[in-house]
Amino acid sequence: MNNEQLTDLLNRYDLNQPKPIFLRHNENRTYRVQEKSGRNYLLRIHDPFVPEMQGPQHRYEGIVAELAMLEQWGQWRDRDVQVPIRSREGELVTVFEMGGRKLNASLLTWLDGRDLVKNDLPNIEIIRKLGEQLAELHAFFRQYEPLGIEARPHQGRAYNDKMAGVIRSGVEKGLFTAADADTVEETLRLVNERLKDRGGEDGMDLIHGDIGLGNTILTSDGDIRLIDFGFYGRGYTLTDTAMALMVLPADKREIFLKAYYGEQGWTDEHLREIDGFMLAAIIGYYVFQFGNEQMHDWMREKMPILCSEYCRPFLAGEPMLERIGF
Fold it and tell me: Which top-rank group of organisms is this from (predicted)?
């Protein structure tokens, strides 16, 4: 986008002499927007760099559902979170035209801080705050009546079946062997068997859906905040829990679990299910990057390792909590 197009777009919001600074173009095209007063915002143009990454989270109805949730999340919390800014017309999503295409844009408040990095994670207080932040988000989700949730991505049993099919299609492309595709399919089938009495095909809970270092902010005052709800939708809360655990050192994961579960604690069944959700999350990354040819050599190299070191031991009943990640 050129400066004139950005200016026209930002003029649709009640901002004081906004100055956009390009950040990156990945799943969205993003800009940091600074007002004359010094206040900052995040502008997202929902147009992925790789067209194959396009999903329901980029469509108008899906974005509205995400932003409606974030608006309520901001009202529910008593501390700063990233919330949407409505346009002058009162809209959550701004539709504009560029190069003959209609695109969707949204504006969020800015959180001062930086992405969490691995070097932060030996810090017990940071791990504890991450567990508390996720527990608080899930508490909000349990009482939130979702708007337009049918337009959001879901990570339930149907999604696991879909992932198995995508991996299977990679055999013909020369990305995976048939044996590895069989192993992934068996892994996801076992995960689904354990979930057969847990809600419908889309999952029974609301989830963030993409917990990771890049979507976790260490704020300037030392708090932890989760950002980037692009995969918010139906699923299972243990998906979020498993994703968070994977970024932590194995010997620190119990600290997170204590902070997340509190006095009620966790059960062996929780841990068994977390094992499967960890593997489903890893397989999900392969599926998300499937259309990105730059990742294909990486996939060819890593898939045999995933199957031999993690999936097959999982199928044999071995615990994964201390084995996967970091």
Answer: Bacteria
> What is the residue type of 40?
N
Does residue 285 share a domain with residue 228? yes
Contact between 282 and 302 (Cβ < 8 Å): no
What are the angstrom distances between the C-alpha of 232 and each of 68, 96, 151, 188, 207? 12, 24, 10, 21, 6
Number of domain units in the chain: 2
Could you tell me the pTM of the whole model? 0.92
Residues 6 or more apart whose CB falls under 8 angstroms from that of 195 comprise 156, 157, 236, 273
pLDDT in tens, 67-110: 999 999 999 986 788 999 999 999 999 999 988 889 999 999 99
- Asked which of 84, 110, 136 is the last residue of a domain, the reply is 110
Whole-number Å distance between alpha carbons of 2 and 272 = 51
pLDDT, tens digit, for every residue of 292-307? 899 999 999 999 999 9
Angle between helices 296-306 and 268-288 (to 10 degrees): 150
Locate tokens 């013909």: which residue? 172
Query: Residues 155, 214, 221, CA angle at the centre, nearest 5°?
Result: 120
- Look up the domain containing 273 and give its range: 115-315
Structure tokens belonging to residue 48 = 């992925």
- Tell me the mean pLDDT in the region 300-322: 96
Residue pair 243/235 in contact by the 8 Å Cβ criterion: no
Least confident of 164-168, 275-279, 320-324: 320-324
The pLDDT assigned to 3 comes to 85
Distances (CA, A) of 305 to 21, 45, 146, 299: 40, 36, 39, 10
Q: End-to-end alpha-carbon separation of the chain, Å?
A: 37
Angle at 260 between CA 218 and CA 149, to 5 degrees: 85
